[in-house]
Amino acid sequence: MKKNIHFIFFFIFLATFLQAQAAPRVDNKAEGKRLCQLGKYSEAKPFLEKAVKQNPRSGALWYLAIVNQHLYDFDGAVEALENYMPALSSDEWLTRADSLMTILQIGQRAYDHCQDVVIIDSLLASKEDFFTCYRLGAESGRIQRDNEGNPYFENLAADYQIFSTGSSLEDRHRFQGQWDERHPIDGVGSERFSIIHPFLRSDGVTLYFASDSIPGMGGYDIYRTTFSPDVNAYYDPERLGMPFNSPYDDYMMAIDETHGVGWWATNRNAPADSVTIYLFLVDDDPVYLDEPTPSRARIDNIAETWREEGGYASLISEINEAPQEIVEDHRLHIIINDDKVYTSEDQFRNSDALKAYHQSIAWEKDIQEQEAALASMRSEYAKASAARRKALGQRILRAEDSLFTLYKQQREAVLRYRRLEQ
Fold first, then answer.
1. Cβ distance 59 to 52 under 8 Å?
2. Which of 51, 249, 340, 346 is the right S-S partner for 28, CB 3.0 to 4.6 Å?
């Protein structure tokens, strides 16, 4: 009987041994790398940890750092990269490692100061036209589409627009029914990085945009800047924190002042051909989480952020039903006096008055061009050395004198056509 039992155990052992030998061995590093590159970070992590356990200096540490970053384990990401860096010898890889370390440290600081944002709704939208899902109140302006399908911002009055050129932002004004030339926006531009999706709050000074500038949190990040009347340019932009920004692409921040809500888009928590759009309550005096969690930073569940039991269905319904645009009257508005406003040049009765009107329009365009040039010189002056400032100061004074003359000429032309048409 004992002999038979020994034989049974022997055959079980033999079968198990042969099965193990027949089963293909998994290359933990290769499989972890593959899953990481597919964005399957949770699945990749166990394979990479096994590879590191087998070889504490394995190149799997690089991918483990990236995996931990996207799982919001920034301490683990920094530790993995620190363990990997001593094994690097080439300057190229050391530079890449330094760059990744900076990104991880930025993410770590942002995670530690994650904002307590109330996210009241979310939806999936196509990458191609996601911005058409933003239900902005009319008073907040609108996001339009140009002839090439790219989004641009237009204000409530439909007389100011902001465009992205890819590496900078440009704006233009409408005066007397005619758009002037587009001009670069001072203080917002880059020769190395993309700048996209501008949006100007209704206060006229707070500008949002997205950029893939480095260092950042990864991909596109949302930035905010404000306009300085002192130098007629924008201050240096600041990157928003978590949960607005993430290791993924985040962009198109827009604020609906009417309802006190904001929108932004991100490719986290979304299929490859879509983006997630989040609708949140705007808090101009931000509150931060005492104990941030990956769930809150990643936005695993928007209900976790709510401060009202049952959610915000009534506010969402109000937003969806509100008028999205105010139809603007794009006709000319040529004021002659308190009782007479022309909406067409054909209404001029006096030929000299019409000539004066055309001259006033020409001078108005000159004024806008010279104001833009002067703003650029003032911005350059603020950053220039003491030696350079002397020459710039003289140019600025000449430009101011020239503008003063133009202001006077334009005002006289307006007074002339108004007087001739009385």
1. no
2. 51
